[in-house]
Design brief:
With 272 residues, this protein is of the alpha/beta class. It is built from six helices and ten strands, in the order βαββαβαββααβαβββ.
C-alpha cells in the first residue's frame, strides 16, 4: 500500500488522457508474482467510465510488461454509479479484452434479472454450459466486484424461444448446404482437371499461314494463266550422251517408257 495517496496523473505522468481517471487517487499497488499480476486500487469521488479503466489497464500492461492488470475501484459513498443493466455492453466489451478465452461475447444476447446481489442471466442462444466450463461466470463475478464494489452471485441459464430455435436450425441447415455445395464444386473441379490432363493438346504452329490461291498450282498445257508468271523452270539433267535427246515431263512418264538396259533412251527430265 502507498503511504500517501497520489493521483494517477502524478504517479504515471507519461499516461496521457483527458479522462477523469487521471485525478483518481492510487491507494494501492500490489504485485502478485505467482500470476504476474499488478493490482491497482483507485479511489475517486466521480464515476469512471468502464472503457477508461480498460485504457489505463492496457497502458500499465504495455508499460510494465505484466501478464495481467486488475484495477479495483472504490467510490465515495455519494457517487451515483451507472446500473449494471445500463453498462452491460461495456462490461462485456471490457471482459472480451481481459478474458478473450472466456468467450464473454456470447453473453451479449441475453436478458438480466437483478435482485439484491443475485444476477440471473437468461441467454437466448446455446452456450451456457460452454461458458461455465470456461469459468466465464466466475470472471464476470470478479469484474463486477472490481467495478461496482459488490459481490454478486451469477447464474447462467438458457431461455430460447421457439422462434430462436427455428433460426438456429435454419442457420445450421444453411451452413450444411454451403459445405455440401463447396464439396461438390471441388469434386467438379477435380474431375474437370483430370479430364483435361487426358486430352492430347492440338499442335499449333504460330508461324503457319494458309497457302495463297496460286501457290503450288501446276497449270495444264494451253491453260490461260492471266497475270500469273511461272517461276523459272529448272531441269534435272542426266549423264551427258551423244544420243539424240528427247525431253519429256515427269507427269508424262508411263510404265511403257521402260526399256531394257541395252536399249535405254536418255531423257532430259523437266521438273514441273
Amino acid at each position: 500500500m502507498l503511504e500517501k495517496s497520489k493521483k494517477v496523473g502524478e504517479i504515471f505522468s507519461d499516461y496521457k488522457t483527458s479522462s477523469n481517471i487521471k485525478y483518481a487517487k492510487v491507494e494501492g499497488l500490489n504485485v502478485v508474482k505467482r500470476t504476474n499480476t499488478l493490482e491497482v486500487i483507485l479511489y475517486f469521488d466521480e464515476y469512471i467510465e468502464i472503457k477508461e479503466i480498460w485504457y489505463f489497464e492496457k497502458f500499465l500492461k504495455e508499460r510494465f510488461k505484466f501478464e495481467n492488470i486488475d484495477i479495483k475501484i472504490k467510490y465515495h459513498e455519494k457517487v451515483e454509479k451507472k446500473s449494471i443493466k445500463t453498462e452491460w455492453k461495456n462490461i462485456i466489451a471490457y471482459m472480451a479484452h481481459k478474458y478473450p478465452l472466456a468467450k464473454p461475447m456470447l453473453l451479449l444476447k441475453s436478458d438480466l434479472e437483478i435482485e439484491d446481489k443475485n444476477i440471473l442471466i437468461k441467454m437466448h442462444i446455446k452456450g451456457a454450459d460452454f461458458l461455465k466450463a470456461k469459468k466465464t461466470d466466475i470472471e464476470l463475478k470478479k469484474v463486477l466486484s472490481n467495478l461496482f464494489e459488490t459481490e454478486y452471485k451469477i447464474e447462467l441459464i438458457e431461455e430460447i424461444s421457439q422462434e430462436e430455435i427455428k433460426k438456429i436450425k435454419e442457420k445450421l441447415k444453411k451452413e450444411q448446404e454451403e459445405i455440401v455445395a463447396h464439396i461438390e464444386e471441388e469434386n467438379k473441379q477435380n474431375a474437370l482437371q483430370k479430364e483435361n490432363e487426358n486430352i492430347v493438346p492440338e499442335y499449333n504452329d504460330v508461324d503457319y499461314q494458309m497457302p495463297t490461291e496460286m501457290e503450288g498450282y501446276i497449270p495444264e498445257e494451253g491453260e490461260n494463266l492471266g497475270d500469273y508468271i511461272p517461276e523459272q523452270q529448272e531441269y534435272i539433267m542426266g549423264k551427258s550422251s551423244k544420243a539424240k535427246e528427247k525431253r519429256i515431263s515427269i507427269k508424262d512418264l508411263t510404265a511403257n517408257d521402260r526399256k531394257s538396259n541395252s536399249r535405254r533412251k536418255n531423257f532430259n527430265i523437266r521438273c514441273t
